[in-house]
Write a structure and sequence with these properties.
Length: 216
Amino acid sequence: MHRRRRTALSVSAALLVAAPFLSACGNEAHPGAAAVVGGGRIEVAALQTQVKDVRQAQQASPQSAQLIGSTGELGRAKLYDLIVDKIVQRAADDAGATVSRKEVQRARGEAVEQAGGEEQLAAMYLQQRGVAPDQIDEALRRDVLVGKLAAKIGATNTPEGQQKVNEAFVAASKALDIDVNPRYGTWDDEKMQLGDYKTPWITQVTKEAAAPEAGA
């Protein structure tokens, strides 16, 4: 369990690879929406709030200039995260996988212990994943849910197991009929990619998530 959590925390800073934050005002079909996923809207205003939270955390960091300079594409990064949240949830729902509040709290406790404290954990998530302190629990919940999904579908820690998890994500993505505001790019179901923006988060987390629990 500790090894799996360390992998989730060592996610590449490629999540923060730069591209301009686009102050989209919506397209004709879905004015005010950054994307429509499964019939539900991801509002531009909600996306901007997420970006603002991260920017404020970055500005308060001793490495503020470096963090801000490396996250010019923060708007797309956060939209990607919000879309993936819904894909993971749909795949988990289809498989009958759930995560309890207690499991998220336990995952947070383990993450804090491994990071060396709450401040260190917050700094790590901000730097490596572009996640503000108040967004950490949701990120942890998603990580745990990926692991629960892998267990439900019998995906082991092998290339075949990882492929099985990826196939579940692709199926969920297609079922959600994702429509992204053109100002942010287009969504590719097969590549799990927003335009030319992609993060290795899914691959890196699912590799560890596919490892079965001891004694499971």
